[in-house]
């Protein structure tokens, strides 16, 4: 166990390392080094950056084993740094750029003010995240790519760990571009899918289903889950939705689904479920981001999800560990 001072000073150093990582992602350093080493001056030219400033960041990145010195004042991409290339399947570049985007960085820096006041400094300055995304197409594209890559391990775990009822109709509530629904439908060729999301998102989902050869098995509906959801389906999926909202709003969403679902239907909630102990957990890190960015958004424990479901007329039946920190909560009509 490290000495407490090492933990504290290490956390302070993480701020600088995160800033260096963000700079590498934002400037596309890994993409520029993909074909081999470059001198710092040439790399700076390709990145449209100041050579002197970039040299100092590269020194930190080399200490993180993301790049490696390659002769005098030149650097090559280290194997660990490959994950920051845009063209690799497991790329984390968009995730780093999204979490380091100006408003997100602001939100985490103002976390003390959020905690003092009990309301998000992010919301006070920028408004609700999804309104901001709707007004900024470039930011929305970056966020969508982040969410797609973030959901990949969860989606793979969902397809392997959960048995869907055959020939069921599944409604993906706030399903975004439709990548999770597409994955489920590919794994379950007898199922049909309906995706519900806001109007500015639905065209993206239609393109996804067309590209995936699923247009004849899907329907895309523009709507607001606070108003209602498509009725009569067998399965309703909420993937990374409820953690954006406070308890009352979450119960409203769940209540609308409860009223719309078939008598023998089920609700699937894909979220990070917090443990009850004090051990480190991915959900505890994400929970602070939710605190910083949303008014009332939170990660929750199993018991807290059970309470929300109960308020909406649903009963938690099981929790399936999907790996990568995520869980699938199944709920049935109470």
UniProtKB/TrEMBL annotation:
PROSITE patterns registered for this protein in UniProt: SAM_OMT_II
Entry keyword S-adenosyl-L-methionine: yes
Pfam families: Dimerisation, Methyltransf_2
BP GO terms, sorted: methylation
A GO molecular-function annotation: methyltransferase activity
Origin superkingdom: Bacteria
Domain O-methyltransferase dimerisation: 19-83
Enzyme Commission number, as recorded: 2.1.1.-
Gene: tcmN1
Keyword terms of this UniProt record: Methyltransferase, S-adenosyl-L-methionine, Transferase
Name listed for the protein in its UniProt record: Multifunctional cyclase-dehydratase-3-O-methyl transferase TcmN
CDD domains, A to Z: AdoMet_MTases
Gene3D superfamilies the UniProt entry points to: 1.10.287.1350, Vaccinia Virus protein VP39, Winged helix-like DNA-binding domain superfamily/Winged helix DNA-binding domain
Residue stretches making up the O-methyltransferase C-terminal domain: 111-314
